[in-house]
Structures are given as C-alpha cells and as structure tokens.
Amino acid sequence: MNTHNFSANHTGGDKSLLNYLKGSMMLLESLCHGHVAEDLSSNMNQAVQCVVNALSQGHPLLVCGNGGSASDAMHIAGELVGRFHINRKAYKVISLSSDPAILTCLANDFGYETVFERQVEAYGETGGVLLGISTSGKSPNVLRAFKKAQDMGMTTIGLTGQGGHHDKMGGCDIILSVPSPSTPRIQEIHTCLYHYLCARVEEALAATPH
C-alpha cells in the first residue's frame, strides 16, 4: 500500500465517516509492518529512554509546536505533570506553547521565529530533552529551538510527518516520523505516538524508587 499518496481528502468519492475512519486505519496499519515499523519502534524506544533518563535526574522535558501541534504540546505536558494512568509524583514537563503573555512578548519584541528558542534558553538545561512537533518538519521556530537545545547539551526529539528527515529537523537526535503528507492524518497518528510515549515514561518512572 502506498501511504504517501493517501490524504485526508482521498476518499474515492465516499464522504462517509466510516470511510474516513478506514483511511486512518490504513495509515495506522502501514506503521505496523516492515522497515517503517522497525525504524519507528527503535526511535520510539530511544525517545522513551532519553525522557526517562532526563526526568529521573530532575532535568526538564520541554515540548513545543504551532497550531494543532501547540495543543499537542500542552496535551503531553498535561499527561505528565498530571497523570496518564498511574497516580505518582508530578514530572518536570513544560509546554512552551502555553503562555500567551510570553509568546506575544517574544513575537512582538524578537520575532515569531524566536518564541520557542528563547524559552529553551530560559528553562532548558544540560541533560534535559526538547520534544518539538512539526507536521512539515520545517517550522522555523521549532528548528531554532532545536539548535538552542543542542547548544545547551539537551537531547532533541522531532515528532513530524513524511518530510521530517534529519536534515529538515535541525539535525535533531531522534525522529518520530509519520509517513504521510496529510497534516490531519499526521496529527491523528501523533496522538497515538505521544500517548504511547507518555505511558512508557510514566510506567518506567513510577517503578523507579525515589
């Protein structure tokens, strides 16, 4: 199956909900087989371990994105500062997309491309992790945040779509890529991926004596 040509609007004339859901299932199914599945699983395991290592040592996980990805950044922070499944201590996870005063100040005074970079400088630290979300892999403010994080000795994780290869994500350390050009489809799978990430991180940290 060629998932690269599948988009949210490719329904073969059938606009029913069932057909739309079948499209999502097709893309999910494509992630479960072959090299795509192997690469995604390997990269996800690396991402989980990096986040667990950072949080267990008191270092932050910073998360950023624009638009729908900003909502995802807040969602991830909510799951890990609050809880996903397990009652446990809160983790040091900060969404860089959440504070309108900071975002508008930085956009107005320094330019929108700096809104995450500047916050990484404020909240980041060596040993921490930056998770940047960009369905295209090209968001300038996310790429600049990756560069700042790398300069500060942080691990960088990119959550992206089919165009988000290493050279298009600021050379970030770990890429979690959904093989689709369709933004809505990518976002749907991103939810599955970061829910899995949250579950694995929570389980690992909750099982660690403090």
Describe the structure.
The model is unreliable at 1-9 (pLDDT under 50). The protein has seven helices and five strands, in the order ααβαβααβαββα. The chain is globular, with a radius of gyration of 17 Å. A five-stranded parallel sheet has the order 2-1-3-4-5. The protein has one domain (12-206): Rossmann fold (3-Layer(aba) Sandwich), CATH 3.40.50.10490. It has 210 residues and is an alpha/beta fold.
Please report the total strand number as a whole number. Answer: 5
Contiguous runs where pLDDT drops below 50 for at least 5 residues: 1-9
Order of helices and strands: HHEHEHHEHEEH
Largest sheet: 5 strands, parallel
CATH topology: Rossmann fold
Total tally of structural domains? 1
CATH second-level architecture = 3-Layer(aba) Sandwich
The residue fraction in helices comes out at 40-55%
Q: What fraction of residues sit in β-strands?
A: 5-15%
Q: Which features does this protein show?
A:
single chain, 210 residues, alpha/beta, Rossmann fold, five-stranded parallel sheet, 5 strands, 50% helix
Topology:
Blueprint: H1 17-30, H2 34-56, E1 61-65, H3 68-81, E2 93-95, H4 100-110, H5 117-123, E3 129-134, H6 140-151, E4 155-160, E5 174-177, H7 183-206
Parallel strand pairs: 1-2, 1-3, 3-4, 4-5
Helix pairs in contact: 2-7, 3-7, 5-6
